[in-house]
Amino acid sequence: MFTQFFILFGAMFIGFLARKIGLLDDRALAGFSKFTVYVGFPMVLVHNIGGIALTNDVLRSFFLMMFLSVLVLMLTMLVSFLIYKFRKLTQGEKNVLEFGAFLGNSGFIGIPMSIAFFGEQGLFFMVAANVVTGFAIWTYGVHLMHRGTHSKITLKVVLKTITKCLLNPNIVATVLGLLISLLHITLPAPVSGLLITVGNTAMPMSMIFLGASLAAEKISGLFVNKLVIESAVVRLFLSPVITLAAVYFLPIAPMMKIILLFIMILPIGAALPMIVKELGGNEKFTAKNVLLSTLLSILTMPLWMIVIEKLFQ
Fold it and tell me: What's the CA gap between 173 and 131, in Å, rounded?
């Protein structure tokens, strides 16, 4: 476990240092982000999912994982709703805090870490959970950001939401990988090699991006905002504890339990500020929540991984 964490957080530190000394700027980071999201991770998913023998049992496991992910997300949504419902906060703050409670960074951190720690099976279940999360963002997330406002969810918003879901790069890559496996397509060796080679850049690039992003922000001011601290506590401690209690005694495969808990120990999704901005919410407040939860996750994730190892492996 130490080796995997050293590699992942070492890459993050390299990104942090590169930004501090001026080797990486905003333009470079934007390129890193787009390449990883639209090229790196999709290639990883196509290669890994396309190489899985999709028997009936494997497919049942995939859809069961999706179903369980729905239940875990709904539980998290309910708990976060109850936490903030009766608080004297603005509606915008409540919406963002509830959004962050269920949306983890399953892309930039979740995919590379699931590969590093749990292998092909872990990635397979992670993908099933990510499909559910992707739909949750553009359905319940859209509802959240319109809740308590004068704006209505129009047909245009609904169509845009559907398009966002269907054209999500990871969902497209997942469907493509499933088709390759279901149709028993054997990719030519050069194509397979290309997918592996380019896909292998996704993990280091995503961690370098995260490190460089942290270096660009003023961290000291985060610890004086009680709501931002509370958001991190809910995401990194409360949500995992509730999920662990919910899944521990379920009669399912240990790897399913691991991934269901794993998606809840991740910090708030890095894409949340952009999503909130697009939906008319408070982008700056959201960015602070993301930044602090990401920073604290450097400490909390290794602790939770020890818990996972002791309980399930």
Answer: 11
Instruction: Report the CATH fold assignment for 2-312.
Output: Na+/H+ antiporter like fold (1.20.1530)
List the domain boundaries for the chain: 2-312
Which residue type does 71 have? L
Q: What is the pLDDT of residues 209-254, one digit of tens each?
A: 888 888 877 777 778 888 999 999 999 999 999 999 999 999 999 9
Q: CA-CA distance, 228 to 231, in Å (whole number)?
A: 5
pTM over 0.70: yes
**Which residues, at least 6 apart from 98, have a Cβ–Cβ distance to it below 8 Å?**
77, 80, 81, 84, 144
Backbone phi and psi for residue 208, each to the nearest 5 degrees, phi listed first: -60, -40
Amino acid 154: pLDDT: 66
Q: Are 284 and 228 in contact (CB under 8 A)?
A: no
Which segments of the chain have a pLDDT < 70?
Answer: 1, 149-155, 157-158, 161-162, 165, 313
| pLDDT reported for residue 254 | 94
Q: Which residues, including other chains, have CB under 8 Å from residue 250's CB and lie 6 or more apart? A: 68, 257
Alpha helices (runs of H) in the chain, residue ranges in sequence order: 2-20, 26-35, 41-50, 56-85, 91-102, 111-137, 140-146, 155-166, 169-182, 189-199, 202-215, 226-233, 239-247, 254-265, 272-278, 283-312
What is the C-alpha separation between 42 and 36, in angstroms, rounded? Answer: 8
